[in-house]
Recover the amino acids of this structure.
């Protein structure tokens, strides 16, 4: 699990400080300047079990979960209507915030964009022109240069994601990824076998 303190140096080095992205991370940690953004649900909204994940797009453990266990989880439980999934942004640095903002700018493509950036995390999540690499991936999601720049300057979305992170902190999130299954913090391993044990018991109850 990755905690916020692991990314302090990286966050300060990113070339985003002049934008609302940088301003959000410059605020006092106790300040919540907006309401959390509305959840984007993946799967059947009436599914009997809900999984909420707090994640940062720059977290390697989050990327490993999404490119591994999550794909099996989606096939077995989300696509079959047994579970609905909600990703709540908990960015650990300004680059993670930037990618979260990009995904929010195209809500109909939110989860495909999240998948794309997790799959290619090793490509873009570095200090070697990360914003340029972000744009090259954003183009694959249909962003023009103008849309990309306008999106990253959308202060309402930035502040809403910052509020999402504060919500997570209030719910006891100290690192990423953190999962809640039907409101209960899931402390177990994130293998598909371990998750089956928890989910099947809830679905059958």
């Amino acid at each position: 699990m990755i905690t916020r303190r692991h990314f302090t140096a990286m966050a300060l080095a990113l070339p985003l400080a002049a934008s609302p992205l940088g301003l959000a991370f410059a605020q006092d940690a106790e300040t919540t300047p907006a309401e959390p953004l509305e959840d984007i649900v993946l799967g059947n909204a009436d599914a009997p079990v809900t999984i909420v994940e707090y994640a940062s797009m720059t977290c390697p453990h989050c990327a490993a979960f999404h490119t591994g266990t999550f794909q099996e989880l989606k096939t077995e439980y989300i696509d079959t209507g047994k579970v609905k999934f909600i990703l709540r942004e908990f960015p650990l640095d300004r680059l993670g915030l930037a990618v979260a903002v990009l995904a929010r700018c195209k809500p109909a493509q939110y989860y495909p964009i999240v998948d794309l950036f997790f799959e290619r995390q090793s490509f873009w999540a570095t200090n070697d022109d990360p914003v340029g690499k972000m744009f090259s991936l954003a183009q694959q999601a249909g962003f023009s240069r103008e849309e990309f720049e306008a999106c990253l300057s959308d202060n309402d979305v930035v502040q809403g994601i910052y509020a999402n992170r504060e919500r997570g902190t209030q719910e006891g999130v100290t690192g990423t990824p953190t999962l809640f299954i039907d409101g209960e913090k899931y402390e177990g391993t994130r293998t598909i076998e371990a998750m089956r044990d928890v989910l099947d018991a809830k679905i059958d109850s």
